[in-house]
Amino acid sequence: MNKPRRADAQQNRERILKIAREALAASPDASLNSIAKAAGVGPGTLYRHFPSREALVLALYRHEIQQLVGLAPALAAQHPPLTALRLWFERLAHYGRIKRGLAHVLHAAMNDGVLRETYGPMVGAIDLLLRACEASGSIRKGVNAEDVLLLMGFLWRIEPGREGEARAKRLLGLVMNGLQSES
Amino acid sequence: MNKPRRADAQQNRERILKIAREALAASPDASLNSIAKAAGVGPGTLYRHFPSREALVLALYRHEIQQLVGLAPALAAQHPPLTALRLWFERLAHYGRIKRGLAHVLHAAMNDGVLRETYGPMVGAIDLLLRACEASGSIRKGVNAEDVLLLMGFLWRIEPGREGEARAKRLLGLVMNGLQSES
DNA sequence: ACCTGAACACCGTTCAAGT
DNA sequence: ACCTGAACACCGTTCAAGT
Q: pLDDT tens, B12-55?
């Protein structure tokens, strides 16, 4: 995973990530220069590690996305297929609501072959859950995992808070119903 | 609608809109300064007419949104409720795919009371179609129009072209199925 | 009343010079 | 190899001065 680097470079990289996480949580469009400054490095150094804003944000979310992806097989093993799918969506909703950047990152990943490293596993996780549902006859046949991820994009446009939570639940219900066999 | 203005101000406003339409179509994040320059006005003038980028983009889409809103009653009068709903969604998809900015604008409108002038009619149009479906028993009861608009947000994240068209159709099918009575 | 355009603080990005 | 930080072209925004 982590390519070997010179010790100082590795330290800089980690400090940039740490500061960036805090800065972007506080204000989602904090400037890269200001992050570099807060991390105590020159702008060129930040640029060397993360050639674009996207690359930086992606690096931040990579860990959490990996968690999410890893959850899919676990849920599939412990629950009936349709329940597993719903539970995984709810977890996705949780991430969606606290991390707004996710939408933009996933959308970018879709259009950039290099970033499939992140998008691919997400789609894989959904596909796993969908195919299980399909096998048990609890959803209609042939539903595309990429389509479903795109459809779920509403999640990161929902405001946080009580009302948002209720809204996410309602919409999730609509989507789940849509996946089921045609009436 | 149009407040009376001095003739030169009105002309400037219109030329800015015309140039902005072209510039933003060519490159969605053309700078405001460059638009002002292309329109032959000072940056202050552009700023006076449109105090933010959002305000400018919203003004551009207002006309097309009005068209869309006006279409709802017409469709409802000419088709069975469920068909009317689907046709309206397809029209929305068309706008979505050619005009990317729409997503951002509608999202902003949602959070900004002043802009409800645009968001409200959109929701109203959807509500009209939904209620007709509900009355005829072709969808489940109590579906929220704002929820549905949010759910349809995937439309402006779809790439243009043949494949995007097919994708929009598939996803629309999922949504329509989700709206129907619970199995 | 409206427009102009210089000016301000800041942005992303680059790259020669250092270690 | 990697970092620094000055520098570049440009950004959104403001506002005194003009008509």
A: 999 999 999 999 888 888 999 999 999 999 999 999 999 998 88
Residue-level pLDDT at A114: 45
Domain range spanning residue A88?
53-179
Distance of residue A139 Cα from the nearest chain B Cα, in angstroms:
11
> According to the model, what pLDDT value does residue B39 have?
97
Contact flag, residue B164 CB and nucleic strand C, below 7 A: no
Instruction: Read off the CATH number of the domain in which B27 is found.
Output: 1.10.10.60
Residue B107's pLDDT is 64
Q: Residues A164-180: pLDDT tens digits?
A: 888 888 999 999 999 98
Q: Are residues B38 and B71 in the same domain?
A: no
- The pLDDT value recorded for residue A115 is 53
pLDDT (tens digit per residue) in A54-106: 889 888 888 777 888 889 999 999 999 889 998 898 888 777 655 666 666 66
Distances in whole angstroms, Cα of residue B105 to Cα of each of A74, A158, A169: 39, 15, 24
Q: Hey, what are B67's tokens? A: 């068209």
DSSP A129-165: HHHHHHHTTSS-TT--HHHHHHHGGGGGGSPSSHHHH
Q: How many CB atoms lie within 10 A of CB B102?
A: 23
Compute the distance between CA of residue A9 and CA of residue A43 in angstroms, rounded to an integer. Answer: 14
DSSP structural state of residue B138:
S
DSSP B160: S
Q: How confident is the model at residue B114, as a pLDDT?
A: 45
Chain B residue with minimum CA distance to A173: B178
Q: Which residue from B157, B167, B183 is facing A183, i.e. has the nearest CB?
A: B183
Entry pTM: 0.76
In a shared domain, residues A116 and A154: yes
* A102 contacts: CB under 8 Å, gap ≥ 6: A61, A95, A96, A156
Phi/psi zone of residue B40: left (φ > 0), alpha (ψ -120 to 50 degrees), beta? left
Domain end residue (candidates: A35, A51, A67): A51
The domain total for chain A is: 2
Looking at the fold, whether A155 and A97 belong to one and the same domain comes out as yes
* Residues A35 and A77 grouped into a single domain: no
